[in-house]
Design brief:
By secondary structure, the protein is an alpha+beta fold. It contains 3 helices and 7 strands. It has a 7-stranded antiparallel sheet with strand order 1-2-7-6-5-4-3. A hairpin with a 2-residue loop joins strand 4 (45-56) and strand 5.
């Protein structure tokens, strides 16, 4: 899934070309924190989720499909009952910043910078609090991808 970095504005944009199509969303730690006792090791995988993008108005929602509870039945009422009882979750709402044909460009800055792995919670739980009530700073290293001129706003 292509993303674009606008270094001048400090923004990360995501290109979404397929709505209502399931894919796997996994977060992971690219580096550890230097202590095996804490349990935050390099390469550690976080939760895995089956998700899909859905458009509503000027937003695109990242929806977590709930496959933990399913009805294996030919009865459509029973299947609908299970679906309604165990709801899907909206993990994020992205604002659409530009349309490019069928592709949507969304501002994904806060999504990419969130603590999806729960590092802050793990540090607090293991009494490894940061000094002065600081919160960790999350960031994305820009590799070779440059922000395409046609998406500059």
């Amino acid at each position: 899934m292509p993303f674009y970095l606008d270094e001048e504005k400090g923004k990360i944009y995501l290109e979404i070309s397929s709505l209502d199509k399931e894919f796997l969303y996994v977060n992971a730690l690219s580096a550890g924190v230097g202590s095996n006792d804490i349990g935050l090791d390099r390469g550690q995988l976080g939760d895995d989720r089956v998700v899909e993008f859905r458009r509503t108005g000027n937003k695109v929602l990242l929806v977590h499909k709930n496959y933990g509870f399913r009805a294996f039945t030919d009865n459509p009422y029973e299947a609908k009952s299970i679906q309604d009882a165990f709801a899907e979750s909206v993990l994020w709402g992205f604002e659409i910043t530009q349309k490019d044909g069928e592709k949507l460009i969304v501002d994904a800055t806060n999504f990419y910078l969130q603590d999806a792995h729960g590092v802050s919670e793990t540090l607090t739980r293991s009494r490894q609090n940061l000094p002065g009530g600081c919160k960790p700073l999350w960031f994305v290293f820009p590799y070779d991808q440059k922000f395409p001129p046609k998406y500059r706003g």
